[in-house]
Design brief:
Elements: H1 2-10, H2 14-22, H3 26-34, H4 38-47, H5 50-58, H6 62-71, H7 74-83, H8 86-95, H9 98-106, H10 110-120, E1 137-138, H11 144-154, E2 163-167, E3 173-178, H12 179-183, H13 191-194, E4 202-203, H14 208-218, E5 222-226, E6 232-237, H15 238-256, H16 271-288, H17 290-298, H18 300-305, H19 313-336, H20 345-375, H21 378-408, H22 418-441
Parallel strand pairs: 1-2, 4-5
Antiparallel strand pairs: 2-3, 5-6
Helix pairs in contact: 3-5, 8-10, 14-15, 17-22, 19-21, 19-22, 20-21, 21-22
């Protein structure tokens, strides 16, 4: 396909090329445009039908979007702004430099420019910042037939028409009705008789992460957004919610890897910024690990008496860190998707403690057999067995407790992930190990 498009482009068969591109999906067109030169990119984009061009544009990388906007004529820019939906326009404007934003707004219709400015006033992380005002609203006194007339009249410019929102004269949201319900109802039926009055909604200042969770929980295509007076001001659609979920997941992964979150992609982030985002946690964890060295120094008498004890330190520390990481990962995920709540604290502790006993027993038995086969020393096997039981129990408990404490004090639970858990468990496991060794061996 790619070779065929390049050949048509070289032969300047633009009509045939336009027919070929018209039948392609926007994401496939973007893949083709990624490897195109600047001239080919502009040429291919201009061949696309207006509606398809708008769909392709909003999915493009920010740098490519900026390049195209700079290359657009004033007429092309105006036509483009007339085609895209409000929420997409807001997203583009937020990504562009100031000089490009001024040019975009200059060629935007006054009504749309006013609404864009209103949406941009909302805090970046709230529902209002990701909503669109392109929805179909109905009145409760309308008949089904009148409702369809309104949908046909106004729906062509709306982002979604599957769900229609019923508002009172003061714009207060009083219900909603799906197109499916309208299709299955009698034409003379009143909207107030068939609308749903029990519905899920969000407020303009509600955290957009919570909005994403509601989409995940209820499987909606759109959620209405209301202000403090319960007036309908917009809707959040499924595609925007998915962007939020992906953004939050990326942020959690970075935090769990002991890095400060970055808004840009990997290649767009400079080397200096990558280093800056990582170095604070690395310094903190490195300095924290000095506690481990101090513990080893304190118990050097045990090492001197039985040098063999040293060889098991990496295994104990590694096992403890791995067990703690497993628990923290499960709890962080559970908190993120509301599967685990703070009130579940005792249940989580009890569950992880039982898991620790099973896992610890299995590992202790296997390790005891290994030590007997290699060293024929039951005393060390007993020391290691008890140490593993204690370390795993502690690691599992820390792994579930710390993320829940973070949630309680309004921190991101992802902070309490593998690197931090491993550092804490390393120190604690050594204290357990040497104390058990000195107690059993009488050192």
């Amino acid at each position: 396909m790619k070779e065929r498009i390049n050949k048509l482009l070289e032969q300047k068969k633009y009509a045939e090329l336009g027919k070929l591109l018209k039948d392609m999906e926007p994401v496939d067109i973007i893949l083709l445009l990624e490897d195109a030169s600047d001239e080919e990119l502009l040429c291919l984009y201009r061949i696309l039908p207006k509606e398809l061009a708008a769909e392709v544009f909003v999915e493009m990388d920010g740098d490519v979007q900026e390049h195209l906007i700079q290359a657009f004529s004033d007429r092309e820019l105006k036509d483009f702004m007339d085609e895209i939906f409000l929420d997409d326009a807001v997203d583009i404007i937020e990504e562009m430099p100031a000089n490009v934003v001024k040019r975009i707004l200059r060629h935007t219709a006054p009504d749309m420019r006013k609404v864009i400015n209103e949406v941009l006033k909302y805090p970046k992380d709230c529902a209002g910042s990701i909503m669109t005002i392109e929805y179909v609203d109905l009145k409760k006194t309308m008949t089904v037939d009148e409702a369809f007339q309104r949908i046909r009249k106004t729906g062509v410019d709306k982002e979604t028409i599957y769900t229609c929102y019923v508002t009172a004269e003061d714009r207060k949201l009083i219900g909603l009705v799906s197109v499916r319900t309208l299709l299955l109802s009698d034409k003379a039926s009143k909207i107030e008789d068939i609308m749903e009055t029990s519905y899920i909604y969000v407020e303009t200042l509600e955290d957009k992460e919570e909005v994403g969770k509601k989409f995940d929980k209820y499987g909606f295509l759109a959620i209405p957004v209301v202000d403090k007076e319960h007036r309908l001001v917009g809707i959040v659609t499924f595609d925007d919610a998915m962007d939020v979920i992906k953004e939050e997941a990326k942020e959690d992964f970075e935090i769990m890897a002991a890095m400060s979150p970055s808004e840009d992609s990997y290649f767009k982030t400079s080397v200096w910024k990558h280093a800056k985002n990582r170095i604070f946690w690395l310094l903190f964890l490195m300095l924290s690990a000095t506690v481990t060295g101090a513990i080893i120094t304190k118990y050097e008498a045990a090492f001197a008496a039985i040098p063999l004890l040293v060889s098991f330190v990496p295994m104990i520390m590694g096992t403890g860190g791995n067990c703690g990481s497993q628990s923290s990962t499960m709890v962080i995920r559970g908190l993120a998707v509301d599967e685990i709540r703070l009130k579940d604290f005792p249940k989580v502790i009890f569950k992880e403690a039982r898991i620790a006993l099973i896992v610890g027993s299995c590992l202790a038995i296997v390790n005891g057999v290994r030590i007997w086969l290699f060293y024929h020393n039951l005393t060390i096997a007993l020391v290691l067995g008890l140490t593993l039981m204690g370390t795993i129990l502690l690691a599992k408990c820390l792994g579930c407790v710390l993320p829940m404490i973070a949630k309680k004090i309004n921190l991101d639970p992802a902070i309490m992930a593998a690197p931090l858990i491993s550092t804490l468990v390393d120190s604690c496991s050594l204290i357990i190990y040497f104390n058990i060794a000195m107690w059993i061996m009488g050192l």
